[in-house]
Structure formats: structure tokens, C-alpha cells
Amino acid sequence: MSFFISDAMAEAGAAGATQGDPLASLILPIGLVVLFYFFLIRPQSKRQKEHRQMVADLQKGEEIITTGGILGKIVDVSDDFITLEIAKDVSLTIQKNAVQTIMPKGTIKDLK
Q1: Would you say the pTM of this structure is higher than 0.70?
Q2: Pairwise CA distance, residues 51 & 55, whole Å
Q3: Distance of CA 45 to the CA centre of its chain
């Protein structure tokens, strides 16, 4: 029976040795959350904010590219939609959020 007592004492000693400072065990997960924030979440939210601002500032006469790759000139702007002229007498009505990039003036003339 004495060998059971020594085993129980050995288990108690081993369990106490494996438990460390709980703060030290949280350093890695907290560090990963901070890294994810600065390398993934923060830059993405900045890009979204810039895109929302660009879409809000769209004006008649600007040349844009849509997310589908269509190049055209804005001929009308409403609250949620814009009318895009892609060729003479050919217009499309698209959502403002579909605008990917504002191109420099004269881009369409340079392509012809």
C-alpha cells in the first residue's frame, strides 16, 4: 500500500510543476491578436474607408473603371447609381459601389 501513496505524492508534485504563471500563458494569444489587427484588420478597414470616400465623391465627367473591367465616363450621378457612357450613344447604369478606380482625364482618348 505504501507504493500507492508515493505515486499520489508524485502526481501532486508533477501537477504543481506544470502550472505556471497564467499571465505568461496568455502572452502568445494576445500577441497574435495584436499582429492580426495591425497586419490584416487595420489596413483592410483603411482601404474600405478610402473606397467609400471615393464613391461618395464621384462626379459627372470623371473616367472610371468598374470592378468588371468596364472603362467609361460618368454622365449622370444619383444616390446609389451612376450612368456610365462606354461608347458614343451607349450607356450603362451601374451601382456606385461597382466603381473600382478613377482614371486620369483623357484615358479614353488615349486608348482610341
Answers
A1: no
A2: 6
A3: 6
Residue 3, all three cell numbers: 507504493
H-helix segments, the chain: 2-18, 22-36, 42-56, 107-111
The CATH fold of domain 59-111: SH3 type barrels. (2.30.30)
**Mean per-residue pLDDT of the chain:** 86
Q: What is the pLDDT of residues 17-59, one digit of tens each?
A: 556 788 888 899 999 999 999 999 999 999 999 999 999 999 9
Ramachandran category for residue 11: left, alpha or beta (phi over 0 → left; psi -120 to 50 → alpha): alpha
Per-domain residue ranges of the chain: 2-54, 59-111
**What is the helix (H) or strand (E) element at residue 72, kind and residue range?**
strand 71-77
